[in-house]
């Protein structure tokens, strides 16, 4: 497999904008029929966008987080499901940047630049909580490992070449095993039936004594032993997806009102777009969207500042980044759900027709924002502001 290699931030943004326009054209039909975007994911790989965070000394563009967030926002404005598919890809490229050996980085960064995709197999159902990981890496006599467990919500796994699996070693420490999609004993089940984000194929991964060489295992627990941006970067991309959904919903509502909605008879206007009450509501939602976009950009710049080479990441700079992202994520989650729902209020009765599929924006927003609760982000923001309590390093903030 070969892929174009993007060389800088400007090219990454141009590519994302072009792909977003392409993906937007078929997004509603794919969602309605739950037609998985295999061809679109291949175009995403071939474009080179999946390699843009590979370090420069390995041949990548190593773009800024502000640019990466905008890439995801653009893609999500075209098709939120497609935007979510590579989110874990970038998270696990990041894991290799921080904890991979030189040999691991050389091998996997070459894979990424060639267009190969990382999925994920991290969450488990039926456990006590999200960090209760029961999948195990058991040492084999030859120095390799055997990997067994069941994973759910495995976004990207069905489309992946490599599936990073979150697992615990014998001493209970957390590791990531990078497993080929075709490995014996690994099964990906397309059983995702969420009401939104319908074409992410976030189904089940089953692992039955999968053989994993030692040089395909990364000690992820070390990520959380000092200041880190792992959680902030992962959450930044989720935030960008929410902001993209909100923008797409508001744009769709405006187009519908301009071209299809009837004015309310009491308004005295011939066009619904001239109704002062609708204009007021669009203005209010526009302010909400602009605030979400501004918080996203601020959070991304804060992450970039904390991770500036030579600056030295500190507990304080990592905390600032996490809090900035938490604020953006909490606000964006609310904005996406609010605007997705307000679309019907603005566009009127006809917009609720199932065949128009305008409810996909609200369904996508409501589903995606369930990823992790905003209420806990607000708690950490409050503790930080009031008492100077640094946010936790658990990777979800």
TrEMBL record:
Keywords: Flavoprotein, FMN, Monooxygenase, Nucleotide-binding, Oxidoreductase. GO terms for molecular function: oxidoreductase activity. InterPro entries: Acyl-CoA_DH_C, Acyl-CoA_Oxase/DH_mid-dom, Acyl-CoA_Oxase/DH_mid-dom_sf, AcylCo_DH-like_C, AcylCoA_DH/ox_N, AcylCoA_DH/ox_N_sf, AcylCoA_DH/oxidase_NM_dom_sf, S04_starv_induced_SfnB. It is found in: Cytoplasm. Residues 237-372 form the Acyl-CoA dehydrogenase C-terminal domain. Residues 15-115 form the Acyl-CoA dehydrogenase/oxidase N-terminal domain. Pathway: Sulfur metabolism; dibenzothiophene degradation. Residues 129-210 form the Acyl-CoA oxidase/dehydrogenase middle domain. Gene3D superfamilies: Acyl-CoA dehydrogenase/oxidase, N-terminal domain, Butyryl-CoA Dehydrogenase, subunit A, domain 2, Butyryl-CoA Dehydrogenase, subunit A, domain 3. SUPFAM superfamilies: Acyl-CoA dehydrogenase C-terminal domain-like, Acyl-CoA dehydrogenase NM domain-like. The keyword Signal does not apply. It comes from the Bacteria. It holds the Pfam family Acyl-CoA_dh_N. It catalyses: dibenzothiophene + 2 FMNH2 + 2 O2 = dibenzothiophene 5,5-dioxide + 2 FMN + 2 H2O + 2 H(+); dibenzothiophene 5-oxide + FMNH2 + O2 = dibenzothiophene 5,5-dioxide + FMN + H2O + H(+); dibenzothiophene + FMNH2 + O2 = dibenzothiophene 5-oxide + FMN + H2O + H(+). Its EC number is 1.14.14.21. The keyword Flavoprotein applies. PANTHER family: ACYL-COA DEHYDROGENASE, ISOVALERYL-COA DEHYDROGENASE, MITOCHONDRIAL-RELATED. Belongs to the DszC flavin monooxygenase family. This is Dibenzothiophene monooxygenase. The lineage of its organism: Bacteria, Bacillati, Actinomycetota, Actinomycetes, Streptosporangiales.
């Amino acid at each position: 497999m070969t892929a174009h290699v993007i060389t800088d931030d400007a090219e990454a943004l141009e590519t994302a904008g072009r792909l977003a326009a392409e993906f937007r054209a078929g997004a509603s039909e794919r969602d309605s029929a739950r037609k998985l975007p295999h061809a679109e994911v291949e175009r995403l790989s071939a474009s080179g966008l999946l390699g843009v965070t590979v370090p420069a000394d390995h041949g990548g563009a190593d773009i800024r987080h502000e640019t990466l967030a905008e890439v995801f926002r653009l893609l999500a404005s075209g098709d939120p499901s497609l935007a979510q598919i590579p989110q874990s890809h970038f998270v696990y490229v990041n894991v290799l940047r921080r904890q991979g050996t030189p040999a691991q980085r050389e091998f996997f960064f070459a894979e990424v630049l060639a267009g190969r995709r990382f999925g994920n197999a991290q969450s488990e159902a039926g456990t006590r909580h999200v960090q209760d990981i029961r999948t195990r890496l058991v040492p084999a006599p030859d120095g390799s490992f055997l990997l067994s467990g069941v994973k759910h919500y495995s976004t990207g796994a069905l489309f992946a070449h490599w599936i990073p699996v979150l697992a615990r070693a014998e001493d209970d420490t957390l590791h990531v095993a990078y497993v080929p999609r075709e490995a014996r004993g690994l099964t990906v089940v397309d059983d995702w039936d969420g009401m939104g984000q319908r074409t992410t194929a976030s189904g089940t991964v089953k692992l039955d004594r999968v053989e994993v060489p030692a040089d395909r295992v990364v000690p992820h627990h070390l990520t959380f032993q000092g200041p880190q941006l792992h959680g902030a970067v992962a959450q930044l991309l989720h935030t960008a997806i929410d902001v993209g959904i909100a923008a797409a919903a508001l744009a769709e509502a405006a187009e519908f009102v301009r071209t299809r909605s009837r004015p309310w008879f009491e308004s005295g206007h011939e066009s619904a777009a001239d109704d002062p009450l609708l204009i007021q509501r669009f203005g209010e939602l526009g302010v909400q969207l602009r605030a979400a976009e501004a918080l996203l950009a601020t959070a991304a710049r804060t992450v970039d500042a904390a991770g500036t080479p030579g600056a030295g990441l500190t507990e304080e700079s990592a905390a600032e980044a996490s809090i900035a992202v938490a604020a953006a994520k909490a606000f964006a989650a609310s904005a996406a759900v609010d605007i997705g729902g307000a679309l019907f209020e603005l566009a009127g009765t006809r917009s609720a027709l199932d065949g128009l599929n305008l409810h996909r924006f609200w369904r996508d927003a409501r589903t995606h924002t369930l990823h992790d609760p905003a209420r806990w982000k607000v708690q950490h923001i409050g503790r930080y502001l009031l008492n100077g309590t640094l946010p936790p390093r658990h990777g979800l903030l």
